[in-house]
Amino acid sequence: xxxxxxxxxxxxxxxxxxxxxxxxxxxxxxxxxxxxxxxxxxxxxxxxxxxxxxxxxxxxxxxxxxxxxxxxxxxxxxxxxxxxxxxxxxxxxxxxxxxxxxxxxxxxxxxxxxxxxxxxxxxxxxxxxxxxxxxxxxxxxxxxxxxxxxxxxxxxxxxxxxxxxxxxxxxxxxxxxx
Length: 178
Hints:
The protein is mainly alpha-helical. It has helices spanning about 5-10, 35-55, 60-70, 75-85, 90-100, 120-140, 150-165; strands spanning about 15-20, 25, 75, 105-110, 115-120. The chain starts with 5 loop residues before the first helix and ends in a 12-residue tail after the last helix. About 15% of the residues are buried.
């Protein structure tokens, strides 16, 4: 494949964008540009993500909070914010909204009175399961032409990259509002 920069120059990979109109535009070095590809992917997945949230009556940030709390009962709001790369204020709004709807409960930590520990209510756990099933179905469609082993590698590498980059961002920086 050549040196590590060859993919960024597009020397070894002839990838192209194919449009419904039939047009084909060579990607060149953008085929190896992570910010460009993730921005494009986020744009392309926005409508299906909006549809999923609408299907369940959820707002921005709700799915991530439900998923993390479902997997990590008792997680603190601060750890939740860090894991979702969201500002603490955004997480507070989502937690309050989900708590008001009866999907989440907040309890003061017995070991640190400044921290709230979060758990899903039975209704929240049921909602999280339904959202997960709907997401799984969407992923099956999106990855229909990708071999299961390639999909596993994709998510493994993507998760390791996020994990590595998350460790380099100073606390309180890099968070998004939703």
